[in-house]
Amino acid sequence: MDQEEQKILNRINELYHLKQTRGLTEAEKAERKELHAKYIKIFRAGFKQELEDTVIFDKNGHEVTSAKAKAVQRRRGLRKD
Q1: Is the pLDDT of residue 61 over 90?
Q2: pTM value surpassing 0.70
Q3: For an engineered disulfide with 28, which of 24, 60, 72, 78 has Cβ 3.0 to 4.6 Å away?
Q4: Alpha carbon distance 66, 36 (integer Å)
């Protein structure tokens, strides 16, 4: 997790605790919504990259990575075939 992602997550947690103790102002609700959207965007980008980098093998040791994933890996210079 990078520094920006950690800052976002820390602030989301702060807002959660404030909501539990005293409730949130309209500005804080808007901030929370914006932070959630940013966090989800960062998470999805990282997850997508992780999937694109994954190479899958069957139980016999033969690669069964999808053609779409192979194409992305080639474009990014991760495959030589």
Answers
A1: yes
A2: yes
A3: 24
A4: 32
Nearest to 68 by CA among 80, 57, 81, 52: 52
Closest residue by Cα to residue 5 from 31, 42, 30, 37 = 42
**Do 63 and 55 touch, CB atoms closer than 8 A?**
yes
Domains in the chain: boundaries = 3-75
The alpha carbon dihedral of 52, 54, 55, 61 has a sign of negative
Q: Regarding the domain delimited by 3-75, which CATH topology (the fold level of the hierarchy) does it fall under?
A: Methane Monooxygenase Hydroxylase; Chain G, domain 1 (1.20.58)
Taking a C-beta distance cutoff of 8 angstroms, is the pair 32, 15 a contact?
yes
Token couple for 81: 């075939």
